[in-house]
Amino acid sequence: MITLKNIVKEYEGKQEGNKAVDGLDLEINKGEFVALLGPSGCGKTTTLMMLAGLLKPTSGEIYFGGRLVNHVEPKDRNIGMVFQSYALYPHLSVRDNIAFPLRERKIPKLEAYERAKETSKILQIDHLLDRKPAQLSGGQQQRVAMARALSKNPEILLLDEPMSNLDARLKLDVRDEIRKIQRNLGVTTIIVTHDQEEALAISDRVAILNGGKIQQYAPPNELFNHPVNLFVASFLGNPPMNLVKGTLEEKSGNQVVATNGFEYVLPEDRRLDKTHMGKQVLFGIRPHDIMICDSTDMQAIKMKIDLVEHLGSGKLVKAIDPQHKLETMIRILTGNEIEVNSGDNVYIKFKERKFHIFDMTDNGVNLLQYR
């Protein structure tokens, strides 16, 4: 198990209180695949560098198993690391690149080459052993970098944006390969990425960071369907979650979110404590949780289609309030069977229990996160 306890990292020259990593606590189980996800400057790469031993924490403790490693040199941590640039030696063959960390450990040349060959077979690049990096495609170079990291049988594999240099199609193939290899070898793996799709697809759990702090650490489905706060909800999802300003009110025995364009009645099992009534909130609903419906539906909301984008697998419909009371445009994901065009008037409704309510007075906490 990897354990980070109250990790803080401050860089010299920064103003006091401006921390790259600020009180980070994290546990990663043996054999688990974890992603550190967040926007630029959130602290994810700094955290990875501290795990690798390339940076020392200002305070806090890092444990590999029960071993404190704060002052253990990178070469003694038994880690493998794949950098964003792959960092292959251009003058060396694939074989020598893979064998390089083994030769650094004074392992005999023939043994190092044999282990390089075995590792290259796992990544299906054993036919490339005599080539130089310049003769390889981006995907092949990425596999060589992975093979080099795995050749020394590391206990921990660290991946720093390893797919950022690949085109969209190749990313999918390489992503699948990385996951298969990790599962087969059972090596504890941590990947840093800003690509939410990549993180959600490949990981057992994802830690979402912002401002040097972990906002939420959970399996992908939990993050997407039960975000703990506004940052997590708005960061995840493409197209992003719809967010509409409103007020929590009680009317005729019902709890409602009242906005300038509509009122939404909360179902009985989603009712909130009365102390929340009167609060300013953001009503959140993901585009795929909105349906185009008949005007007779009790919770139907009238909208006007502003734009229709054809996505191949479906349509992204952008709708506005025809009375212009609702300032926010609403994004709706529909199937291709739904016939709508710009200028059409339609009615929409929200799937029950798929909405979120974020408290604007309490750091955007999701009032429904435990429902």
TrEMBL record:
It comes from Cohnella silvisoli. Pfam families: ABC_tran, OB_MalK. SMART domains: AAA. PROSITE patterns: ABC_TRANSPORTER_1, ABC_TRANSPORTER_2. PANTHER family: MALTODEXTRIN IMPORT ATP-BINDING PROTEIN MSMX (PTHR43875), OSMOPROTECTIVE COMPOUNDS UPTAKE ATP-BINDING PROTEIN GGTA (PTHR43875:SF1). The lineage of its organism: Bacteria, Bacillati, Bacillota, Bacilli, Bacillales. It comes from the Bacteria. Keywords: ATP-binding, Nucleotide-binding, Transport. Residues 2-236 form the ABC transporter domain. This is ABC transporter ATP-binding protein. GO terms for molecular function: ATP binding.
